[in-house]
Amino acid sequence: xxEWSKFNLMFRGKNNQILLYNFASSSYLQLxxxxxNIIEKIKEKPNxxxxxxxxxxxxxxxxxxxxxxxxxxxxxQVLKMNRMASNYSSNQLNLTIALTKSCNFNCxxxxxxxxVSSGMSQETVAEVVRFIKKHKRLDRIHITWxxxxxxxxxxxxxxxxxxxxxxxLNYEAQIITNGYLLTxxxxxxxxxxxxxxxxxxxxxxxxxxxxxxPLKCGGKTYGQIIRNIDRLVCSxxxxxxxxxxxxxxxxxxxxxQVYQWMESRYPQEIERQVRVYPGFVDDLSRRKxxxxxxxxxxxxxxxxxxxNYKINPMRILPHMEVDGCTMTKKNxxxxxxxxxxxxxxxxxxxxxxxxxxxxxxxxxxxxxxAEGMVGASYLEEKSCEKCMLFPVCDGGCPKKxxxxxxxxxxxxxxxxxxxxxxxxxxxxxx
Length: 430
Known about the structure:
It is a single chain. Helices cover 32% and strands 17% of the residues. It is of the alpha/beta class. It has 2 domains: 2-69, no CATH class; 72-430, Aldolase class I (TIM Barrel). Helix 4 (122-133) packs parallel to helix 5.
């Protein structure tokens, strides 16, 4: 017995053609409009006799549009198993290391406001290395340098990098920096420190950026950041530079101007070494602020870029996700400057969100760990399981999901694909 897959989406293309897409197999089928009646009949009664159209039957079966009874349900269980296996894998350790809570910027939307500045001590550096060694069966370690502003503690960064590089594990690192201190003295060290990915934030054109991301003393930051990016792009560093443009409804119209300006400034490097993409400013506190984007707004914003400018800064075709995030992965932590441990980078400095410390594997707040890994998992959500996007969705931000469960909130956790998926698929297929 056969059934119409619940992961199918059917919609109309040009000239009223029938387009079918299956999110489990990533297959699409384009049919002439003359097939409309028979497709509708198959949807209603998947086991009707279509022997007169053997090619259509073969295409529907091969693409996963028609499946054996129970196949979708079994697939959901396999997907859950694969994602859980990835989350509980022990061979890789992912550490986000905040060397300091100090920052030289005073960004108007920063969630790290009013936090005591502190740097990582020599003793804590040694404890980080011991913490890594306590993890057995490791063959890979991935480091994200974070803060505050991590380049405030560049000497500590170099010191800890060399200690971790000497452990004999496959080592890779990236850094999230405001770019102001990414100077000509720092850039030559990037290759040696195996920093292959750098994220720098620019919040629009010069005037807008300087207003939203000024120095703590009130000074401008845009010019210095651009000069540093110029030096980086012209250097021998061979990594990936991600220029994140934080956008909300106040400055979103400037994204395309920033993109085009970067494209003209770095014509050989754009999309190859320099990627410019929107970072949607979010607010987990649910303050009454109409400037933040919903998941629908995000999709519309990306769709407008694609249709009006032929720019695709984020992927337009959803694909299967198994990576998870720090909160959902067993071997993933945020380490604060004093060795305190968190399961979300947004929790840095929040005493109530500390799960433990690197100096011991005992006396951890395992209830808090479980709240994020299990309680906030979209794998436990029946509404997610029923969604046709389930095979290609990672469930959105688990921190939002956790907070929603705590206060019965309605923070967006859905993908930007939802609500615009037909238009995104048309952009891919047509």
